[in-house]
Amino acid sequence: MKLDVIPIHVANQPPGVPGLSGNAPPLLREVAEQVRRLIESGEPSAIDLSALPLTPADLDWLQEKLGAGEIAVTLQASGESTLNETACPGVWWVTHRNEQGAVTSQFIEVAFVPELVKAHPQDVAIGLETLEFMIADRQGGAD
């Protein structure tokens, strides 16, 4: 028997949605559980989309289902990173790109504020020193 006559059926593919692997819909349940944990304990979490067997159609489906929120953050550090709030507050779609613009990783982060956006305590201390210098310089110039 020739292999080209053996019928191949894709399991778990929703009818009418070509390219979906069936792996995306369960992620919505996982995200809901992570949001519940965030509310109950304040514990943030993340799902590394790049590490999962997701097709481009799966990623598009997830982005469509989660929708767009009100906040978008862009960071420039060895390539661009975008942190987009979804229509579900506390759920963020995070995409990291290299210097050439190619996507290197994608995450769904569940947090009140994404960790990448939070200021590091040492940076805040440097900011305080800068402010104190500006205040001292202004006072010195007023004499």
Overall description:
With about 140 residues, this protein is an alpha+beta fold. It is built from 3 helices and 5 strands; from the N terminus they run H-E-H-E-E-E-E-H. It has helices spanning about 25-40, 55-65, 120-140, and strands spanning about 45-50, 70-75, 80-85, 90-95, 105-110. The protein has a 5-stranded antiparallel sheet. Strand 3 and strand 4 (about 90-95) form a beta hairpin. Helix 1 (about 25-40) crosses helix 2.
Give descriptors for this structure.
elongated, 143 residues, 5 strands, 36% helix, five-stranded antiparallel beta sheet, alpha+beta
Instruction: Categorize the overall geometry.
Output: elongated
Residue fraction in strands: 15-25%
The assigned structural class equals: alpha+beta
State the distance separating the first and last CA atoms. Answer: 97 Å
Helix content: 25-40%
Short recap of the structure:
This protein is α+β, with helices and mostly antiparallel strands and 143 residues long. It has helices at residues 24-41, 56-66, 121-142, and strands at 45-48, 72-76, 80-85, 91-97, 103-110.
Question: How do the strands and helices of this protein lay out in sequence?
Answer:
Layout: H1 24-41, E1 45-48, H2 56-66, E2 72-76, E3 80-85, E4 91-97, E5 103-110, H3 121-142
Antiparallel strand pairs: 1-5, 2-3, 3-4, 4-5
Helix pairs in contact: 1-2
